[in-house]
Amino acid sequence: MKKILRRWEAVLICMALLFSLFSLHTAEAKDEETLKTIFPVHVIHKTGDDKENFVIVIMGDGYTADEQDKFLQDAKQKAQGMLRWSPYKEYSDHINIYAVQAVSNESGISVYGGKNADTYFHVKVYGKAASFSNGGDEKAKELRQDLEQNYLDRGANVATIHVLCNSEGSYGASVNSLFSFSTNSEDNEDGMVMAHETAHSIGGLGDEYERYTNKPNTSDTSNPDTIKWSKMLGFRGIGVTMAGTETAFAPSRECMMRWLGQPFCEVCKMELARKLNNTDYVSKPAEIYVSNPEISIPHSKTGTLDRDSEKYRISEKNITKANNTDLEFRTVVQNLVNREQHLKMSFQIIGADGKTVKYQEEKTYTIPALSNSYNPDEARESLSIVFSDVYGLSNGDRLDGKVINVDTGEVLATDKTAEQEWSRVNIHYQVKNADGTSTLLPCVDTATVYVPKNSTYILRNPELSGYILAGNSLNQDELKVTEADTDITYYYQVKSDQPEETPTMTPTVTPSAVPTATPTVTPSAVPTATPTITPTEAPTVTPTVTPSVVPTATPTATPTVTPSAVPTAPPSITPTEAPTVTPTMAPSATQTVTPTMAPGATSMQQKKGLKKNTNIVVEVKVTGSKNTSNVSRSVKKAVKKALKKAGRQRKNITVRLKSKSKKNITLKIDKSTIRFLAAKKVKSVQWDRGKTRVAMSLKKLKKVNKRMKKNIYLQVKKGVLVTYYTRK
Question: What is the pTM of this model?
Answer without folding.
Answer: 0.68
